[in-house]
Amino acid sequence: MSSIAVVGTGYVGLTTAASMASLGHSVVGIDIDADKVAKLTAAEVPILEPGLTELVRDGLRQGHLRFSTDHAEAAHVEFVFLCLPTPPAENGRADLTYLLDAARTLSPHLKADTVVINKSTVPVGSCARVQRELGRQDVFVVSNPEFLREGHAVQDCLQPDRLVIGSDDEAAAIRVFSLYRGVVTPLVVTDPATAELTKYAANAFLATKLSFVNSIAAICEEVGADIGDVVLGLGHDKRIGAEFLRPGPGWGGSCFPKDTRALDAIARDAGYDFTLLRETIAVNDEQKHRVVDKVRRLLDGPLEGARIAVWGLTFKAGTDDLRESPSLAVIAELVAAGADVHAHDPTVDPGTDLSRATGIAAVGPDALTIHKDALDAADGAQALVVMTEWDDYRWIDPAELVERMAAPGVVDTRNLLNRSSLARAGCRLLSTGRA
Ligand SMILES: NC(=O)c1ccc[n+]([C@@H]2O[C@H](COP(=O)([O-])OP(=O)(O)OC[C@H]3O[C@@H](n4cnc5c(N)ncnc54)[C@H](O)[C@@H]3O)[C@@H](O)[C@H]2O)c1
Fold first, then answer.
1. Is residue 102 lining ligand 1, measured as CB closer than 6 Å?
2. Segments in the chain below pLDDT 70
3. Which residues sit opposite 342 in a β-bridge?
4. Which of 211, 278, 284, 389 has the fewest CB atoms nearer than 10 Å to its CB?
5. Ligand 1 pocket residue status of 7, Cβ below 6 Å
6. For ligand 1, atom 28, which residue shows the shortest CA distance?
7. Measuring CA to CA, which residue among 135, 63, 127 is closest to residue 106?
8. CATH of the domain at 165
9. Which domain holds residue 68?
């Protein structure tokens, strides 16, 4: 079994560290966030990810996993995974500051023949940039992009759809593959540029699929077709596939928005005008305005001064990640129009300050209240918007909901609630992709 350092213990890094430990490797997770390291050392997992807490606890108990703030720990390992943020910079390009800073810090500590494996999502040429930043010709830099989905991170890490390893050195690629012993999955071994581009292509394709289905849903609403059945008919076609065809309020999260913008920038730099991708992004921006338009349609009066309930703040169910969540964008637009927003999310505590994340700090920092209970958020509301497909909302009694609201009307962006039960309770409903 091998010795590994995982640098960055966020969604990707922590899952990688715990998964590698579960495969029997000896792993140290390194992070600059001392508070996070202290929590992880005490087996407290600061993110919501099914199965991750158990995996971390097992790793700690068995002595295969530990955490540190000291990059010098990488001096004792054969492999270093880089799982660092690559946020958007100007013009949508990925900001490599975190990655390159970490490379510089690690450089003096690495043993000869160490394999540095980049799991962050990075533009083509980043392996070479990391190699230059390390300033070490005696270590190998390999691309091994991560495809995990938040909410399924452990499963995706241990049972991935495929592994992509990009390396100019075949022996280094084989060494990286050896770490995944016990993981049965197709393997693509290629050069670093191809591996790096594959990750962006995957995310851009999935985002395009979602924007496409959201466009079809918009047409359904106008022509009286039902998106649920359209998607069934589409999904049975093996050439299309049933995954990633659920309409909603628009895609978000920490990856798709930044990765689509980054790929557009990569294309621009390469002299290719990726109009299809920019339309995918534009359709997604429009999708959030469409949600607010529906709220307007439900109200008898103006949005200004109206009390609006929002169920769901995370960008999808099963995660506590609020980054680039469509819900926050919709709330920002509602608040900018003068609405008083009362929200609920099972992963967000009342009192959490989202005024910065929503961008409402300047326009109305007090216009958003977060409740512990979903029905309390709906109290006295003139409209309710269901933004995240949390199962909890599905089981709320429509009669009680109608009772609590001032004017019972729901914009169900996820088609989560039961249509006929709501109708029976006397609630107006605007779904997605249904007349
Ligand atoms: N989150 C996802 O679903 C996902 C999926 C696939 C790929 N990715 C990619 O993986 C990368 C990491 O994403 P994430 O969501 O895990 O990020 P994250 O923000 O959750 O975690 C990053 C961690 O790196 C730490 N860090 C920053 N600088 C450091 C340094 N110099 N040394 C040590 N630690 C440092 C931070 O404290 C943080 O804990 C990004 O490139 C992202 O695009 C993310």
1. yes
2. none
3. 309, 369
4. 278
5. yes
6. 98
7. 135
8. 3.40.50.720
9. 3-198
